[in-house]
Queue: 4 jobs
Job 1
Amino acid sequence: MNAVIRPARVEEYDEIARVWMESWVSTGLAEASDFLLANLRARVRREIEHGWTLFVADDNGALAAMLALHLTKLYLDQLFVAPAWQGHSLGRQLLAFTRTQLPDEIALRCVRENDKAWRWYEREGFLFEKEQVEPMTGFMMKHYRWKRGNKT
């Protein structure tokens, strides 16, 4: 794999939503549907209007992952690797890239039932802060923070 992390292009937004959906479905917490895909397509555009800086991992023209950051809020909002690229350290590459964009502090949250994700963030030096229900989805979210100097 030879993925390059780069800013997303407007014409890629629908494909980014598909990658997001496939990765989310791979957690076992949702099922793929046209409804879910339409919601994620709309959400990509809405979130960009509200401050997302959106990146993709491009593997020779194929979108392997999406990364959404709120730079002003020091917030990693979404990091999703397409199923075909999972298990090849692409998540670690995206997190290292995130630390170049947010070098001193990163906040994030994950769905409590997504054990694989939050356990990975803990191994990567993120410290648990609290659990709180996300009103938009109803999911219980685990909130994490990493600060420069945390052990990794």
Note: The helical segments are 13-25, 34-49, 90-101, 115-123.
Job 2
Amino acid sequence: MLCHPERSEGPAHFLAGSRVYRTFAALNMAKSVGVNLFFFISLLSAASFAQSTVHSSVPASRLAHIRHGINLSEWFAQVYDPKGYTKEHFENWTTASDIALIKSAGFDHVRLSVNPQPMMDAARRNNGDTEYFGYLDAAVKMILDAGLAVEIDMHPDSDFKTRLAKEDEFVERFADFWNMVAQHYASWDPERILFEILNEPEMRDSYRWYGVESKLAAAIRRGAPANTIIAAGARWDDDDDLVFLEPLPDRNVVYVFHFYEPHIFTHQGAGWGAYYWHWLKGLHYPSSPENADQIATLVPEARDRMQVIRYGQDHWDASRIEAEINQTADWARQRGVPLICNEFGVYRSFANAQDRAHWITDVRTSLERHAIGWAMWDYSGSFGVVTNRETKAKPDEVTLRALGLKMPAGQ
């Protein structure tokens, strides 16, 4: 999940103009950055492939399974317990009652974050991968048995992604790992198991990412000929990362973006990302100059205060959100590919509950207007729809209503 405020614009010339122009642009980039032959070929393919629409072959029945989802975080990824990824954690963090609650609330799929590094480490031990697959198999089976679809989302820590950005050999290792995982689940239910190549790649070089993603997608496809793949842009899965991307040479792909705009509202009070976010409390949505000016006084640095004041002046509301999401929808329509937004949400601790619900409603409504499937971040974490998992998990009715869902009976 997220969310660095840093932005670096990709070279627009690669997205515009003739196929010949894009080809020479790719060649010049390949020479200038010294990418290897594989990555250059990937770029060349992108330049040629982008000339026409893709005519996606993802079945409508499959897309119908990923309309209204929720993220299952901190189960097979982002495990902050000092004991780490243990049998006890896998069996108790998310249970059959949680999955039943998700189903009864009206969600149709879950996004299951999986950190690949512990699995790759386990494979080095005698029968270690068999043991790890046993835990993951049990989770996937529990989800499928409840009538839900599942996105298996490779969700590593940042250091793993740094290696992908620098080490070709590590890309090869990860591709082999992905092939093994895809082959393992290929015989299950391709209608309801989707493979997300990589969460938020954090790769500044968008051209290299296209090569890496192409390599990983090909490895998945060799292992699982029928399953749908989920592909992302280069950095943080933001909407501007998506619109820089050109489709892969595979028609059974859904393209993904995350939406937390504006981060200054959705991440107010957060202790990660931009440092000044932790000063922000009580910033309203929709934004207003008066409220933003007042909250800006809490921020010590003048440059950061300007960001808060700008939030108020930018008048973030439903129409502003629609203007952002409409650009991703246009990108998809022009290329003939389906979209999903499988992360969006608001950090609960410091945002006003009604403002949070208002923002979620506006984002969800815009996504549905464009027939874009969605998955909220997250089930029971700091952005969650469930607020008291330590006793009996109970969904927040205000959040469910904002998602267009209803409180399950008996809650």
Note: The first strand starts at residue 68 and ends at 76.
Job 3
Amino acid sequence: MSEATTWPDDIFRVLRAAEIRQVAYVPDAGHTKLINLCRADNVIRAIGLTTEEEGVALLAGAWLGGQRGALLMQSSGVGNCINTLSLAKVCGFPLVLIVTMRGQWGETNPWQVPMGQITADSLRLAGAIVYEINEPDMAGPAVEAAGRIAFNGGTTVAVLLSQRMLGTKLFKD
């Protein structure tokens, strides 16, 4: 369990080192610790969204204004972003997505399964480079690599954090 709780700290350190100044997010249990770290930071501006595609536009504006950003979301939110991902591709601005996966390992909510099974393929079809992470100790290095290629190449890179790594949500009374 200690490994599972350190990946948010690793990613946060990478975001700070990469000079990320804006982190957009839709509240998500899988990202809770990372969101809280960003919200408590005095350099990173954490911006809550009502829907994930708002984050693509927000980070386009951040880039145009000279700031780097990252978008945190759950795999079900990737489906909401498919049309807006074309903005990043056509305009050639960097976009880093950090996605907690659902609909995979031991999922208990059948509504999460369809999108969870096609998230990586959907992102690739939309032109994103995709890093699928299954081990907590690879989360930080993957986000670092994603930032490097996104910010140096003006491309979209998604880091998918496996449900097996995060643990399965169990909905109990």
Note: The longest strand covers residues 68-74.
Job 4
Amino acid sequence: MCTYITETLSVAGSAKGPTGWIRVTDASVYFDHPVHATADHTLNVDLRRPEDGPSARVGVELCPESARALAETILRVLDGRST
């Protein structure tokens, strides 16, 4: 079910979009109905640079299981551990 919780944070990095690499300065994370994925609800992550307009955005829609696995893997890699 949708939580209507949206977290927005500042980030520093780059993302590859349809026209090439863009610098990203913001991220939004929320759990809602996907636009494209086939799941009923997904964890959605938008990486963007608002000052460059709506096309400066890369979006990801992950099923809950994939989102958790990705989050755990990111933390493991940052901590210098492997499976």
Note: The beta strands are 6-17, 20-32, 42-48, 57-62.
